[in-house]
Amino acid sequence: MRIGIFFGGPSREREISFAGGKTAFEHLDKSLFEPVPVFVDSFGRFILLEKVLMYSSEVREFYPSRSIHQTGYKTYIESHPELADQPIPAEIGTLLSPDQFKEHFDFAFLAMHGPDCEDGAIQGLLEWYKIPYSGPGLMGSAVGIDKILQNEMIALVNGQQKKSWTLRYDQWVPREYPILFQVLKKHLGLPLVIKAPHQGSSIGVAIVKGDSLEEFISAVNQCFFQVELYGTTWNALDGAEKQAWAQKMANLDEGIGFPVVLNGETIYHPAKLTAVLDGYFSKGNEHALLSSSNGEDQVLIEEFIEGQEFSCGCIQFDDGKSLALPPSEVIKMVQVFDFNAKYKPGASRKRIPVDTTLEKNQEIQKVIATVFEQLGINVCVRIDGFLTPDGTIVLHDPNTIPGMSPTSFIFKQMAEIGLNVTQALTYLVRQSIRERIRSGKNTWQLRSLLDSLDEKIMAENAKSKPLKYIVFASTDEEYTAARAKYGKLNAAGEVKPVPVLHASDGKYYVLTNPLMFKEYVADVEALLHAERHPLLTETSERAAATTAFYAGKVNFQVKIHNQLESLEV
Q1: Rounded to an integer, what distance in angstroms lies between the CA atom of residue 47 and that of residue 38?
Q2: Beta bridge partners of 36
Q3: How far is CA 409 from CA 399, 404, 415, in A?
Q4: Phi, psi of 422 (to 5 degrees)
Q5: End-to-end alpha-carbon separation of the chain, Å?
Q6: Helix (H) or strand (E) holding 271
Q7: pLDDT tens across 158-188, in order?
Q8: Can you tell me the distance from the alpha carbon of 133 to that of 540, in angstroms, rounded to the nearest whole number?
Q9: What burial letters (b/e) apply to 22-45, b meaning 16+ CB within 10 Å?
Q10: 3-class secondary structure for 342-374?
Q11: CA distances from 44 to 7, 25, 88, 123, 223 (A)
Q12: β-bridge pairing 559-561 and 508-510
């Protein structure tokens, strides 16, 4: 089956989308699927990408072409509107129109985030052209992108009480900041959590911790994707500092992105922005308000929830019933679990399950599964939440296309039921076809596609594949390299990789699949002789039939080999 891997798009999370696209491209089971990379640019064009470019470090490395960056700035294609109607360079790929999709792939694997990418827009386009796609359908996607609607619907499902306030842009632009701050402090207290309601779960999140009007203004502006700039500040910068500031505005993980709007004028490039600001402040203007052309019209302001932060995935059995995976506790090294906390090394750690009682972990799973079902989501979701000191479970931010690096939450949690990344991706493809059938569109063709895939999965499971041992020492560097090799061999589908840790006690341990998804080798060693947590055992037993279909029989027992010579490396 040919799998079109869609990544990129107009989202501010396009680099995380690229990382997810790489995961699918590299980890899809090559004995079942042929990956076909489809890059979606900021103009909404679909590009059949040259496969070699999937090994680039970031989108800006290959698109737009490198010659564009000779201005001294690293920019995305939206800073060059003149290229919107230009042909795609042959070294990048081939432009595709939606009516050509079926010529190149049979299924669309969506690794895109944010507006237009996980809100039902691309899903609706694919349904129109009769292309099955991964993840939830139209209704689940529409709910999953709107944090304000989510809050209301989750409260209807589980009765949770979380105080919040929706601040419209027309309430903000009069700049009556002190009054608004006083009202919100009275209504919600401090700290305040500020969110852009239509972004992914990582972009446009800020916390106002102290009683600081300046901090409050900055946080709200951040979530409206706008920047206030004063002439005294701008004029004090030298040329290099102005260029660095403009580059920061173009970086999607720390700036508001281009194009920006100043007094009704749309500015596409950071070089033009610095020139415009020089002229603007030279005329005696004291204040400038720069807004992203794709800024929010309202922001969500919530009370701060104190407690253990967790994230919990939920998938489906073949009959459509839900299975909440073991929840992961987020151990933050920073205050806000935002883009940098999620995706920058060392900013947070994860523990499975949550450090609480078995009963409370089971309760988290139960409420996650209920919300998954009642919000009309299917196939897969990741829902975040808090466990407060008094034991209350508060949920927020259903994420219908979770981040998909090989060590993301969803893959760590699926590993605990015995599925490696390759098998988890096969689940996402197959279950998505199953759910598209339930929509009653193109039914018999999709049933035929599903039957064909099932035959191939069972045939592959029936094959006797040679064992390939991956022996590595007890260092984080070797563990990381072993994980990468483990993933590569699983995806190739030619051998059965067996990871073996040469532990610090001098013994050799054949590791189970879950132990290949920890963050550090010390985490693995701590679990070698520990009894498996009852929640993990219980969830694995519930998932046994599903796991057996995708992975065959799974053994969660760590084995010890005292002699390396007994292993065929």
Answers
A1: 5
A2: 4
A3: 11, 8, 10
A4: -60, -45
A5: 32
A6: helix 270-282
A7: 999 899 999 999 999 888 999 999 999 999 9
A8: 27
A9: bbbbbbbbebbbebbbbbbbbeee
A10: HHCCCCEEEECCCCCCHHHHHHHHHHHHHHHHH
A11: 11, 21, 13, 14, 24
A12: antiparallel
Q: What is the Cα–Cα distance from 289 to 481, expressed in whole angstroms?
A: 47
DSSP bridge pairs for 324: 314
Q: For residue 388, give both structure tokens.
A: 């407060």
Enumerate residues 6+ apart whose C-beta is below 8 A from 358: 534, 535
Return all residues near 506 (Cβ < 8 A) that are at least 6 apart.
Answer: none
Which amino acid does the sequence have at 66?
A: R
Label the pairing between strands 34-40 and 2-8. Answer: parallel
pTM (two decimals): 0.93
At 186-204, the pLDDT tens digits run: 999 999 999 999 887 568 8
Inter-CA distances, 47 with 40, 66, 69, 92, 392, Å: 6, 17, 21, 8, 47
Quote the strand ranges of 198-257, DSSP E: 205-208, 226-230
CB 48 within 8 A of CB 104: yes
Cα–Cα distance between 558 and 514 in angstroms, integer? Answer: 10
Which two structure tokens, joined as six digits, stand for 281? 């402040």
At 386 the three-state DSSP class reads: strand
Number of Cβ within a 10 Å radius of residue 568: 9
Distance CA 129, CA 44 (A): 16
Main-chain phi, psi angles of 398, to 5 degrees: -60, 130
Where are the strands (E) in 73-163, listed by range?
93-96, 107-110
Token pair 């030619």 is found at 494
| Torsional sign, CA 146, 150, 152, 153 | positive
pLDDT along the chain (569 residues), means of 10: 96 93 97 98 96 96 78 90 94 97 98 90 96 95 90 92 94 92 96 91 86 96 96 96 96 93 96 97 95 95 96 95 97 57 60 97 98 94 96 94 90 97 98 96 96 97 94 97 97 96 95 95 95 97 96 78 53
The three-state secondary structure class of 422 is helix
Nearest 5 degrees, angle CA 76-CA 67-CA 246?
45
The token pair that represents 220 in the structure block: 């709200």
Cα(408)–Cα(271) distance, integer angstroms: 37
Q: Which residues contact 373 (CB under 8 A, 6 or more apart)?
A: 322
Q: 496 pairs with which residues across the strands?
A: 467
CA distances from 23 to 31, 38, 111, 420, 535 (A): 16, 14, 9, 12, 28
